[in-house]
Amino acid sequence: MTRSLEDTPLAMRQHHDRQPPSAPHRRFRQKVLELPTSTGSYLNYDRTAVSTMGSGTKSSQFNAESSKGTTRLDPGEFYVRVPPREFFVDGKVFIKLHTEDAGSTGDRNSFGFSTVVYEELAYSQLRRFVVVKVRPKENYCLCVPITTYSGQGAAKKSIDKNAHAIVYTGSSPPEILQGEQGMNKSPLRVVPVRPDAKLDPRSRVNLGKTYPVEWNTKVKEIGRLDKSSLVKLISYWKALMNA
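^ that's the sequence the OP posted. Answer follows.
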C-alpha cells in the first residue's frame, strides 16, 4: 500500500507541531444574571466579557449558552494583584472564579460544569467574597462569601438566618425580604471602588462559611467595607467561629 506524503512521519510531525490559528475574538454584552453563579448577586458594571469562539479541551470547555467555545475573564478587570498585601486587607470585597466539586446532581451539559482529572465533574462560577483575616506569611487570606441564594436572600430554607447579614452598596441598606424576619445582624455597607459598582440589593454575606483564597488568584475589585461595618463583620465572624 502506497503512503501519501501526508502519512510520512515527518509530515505528520510537522502537522502536529503546527499551532491552529488563533480563534477570533469578539466583544459581547452579557446579562450578569446569566453568569454561572449560584449566588445570583451581580455588579451593574460586570456586563462585558471576552468570548473566544473556538473549541476547548475536555477539561476546560464550558457549555456557554452564548457560544460553543469558552468564555474568558476580562483581563482588564480580573488579574493577579501586585503587591498582594496592599490589595488583600480586612474588609476587601472582590469577585473571583470559584471552582468546586459538582456533586452527584451536576449536569455536565450545563454552563459552568466541566470534566477535570480522574473524570470527575466540577462546577465553576463567579463568586463574591469579603476578607475577614489576612495570612501574610502564608500568602493567602480567609474570606466569607456574598450570595443572594438565587434572589431568596436569607429567606432560603435550610440556612441559618442568624449567620447572615445584609451587605449593600449605596447610602442606605435595602429592605429585608419576605421571610427574612428574625435576622439579628446589622447591615454591612460596602464602599464601592467606583460609582457604578453596585451589589444586588438581595446580597447577603454568609458568616458561617470561611474560604481560603490564595493571593496569586485573578480577582476583580468591588470595594471595601466602611470602618463601622468592618468592625461588625469581624466581630460577627469571630463569634460564629468560636460558637
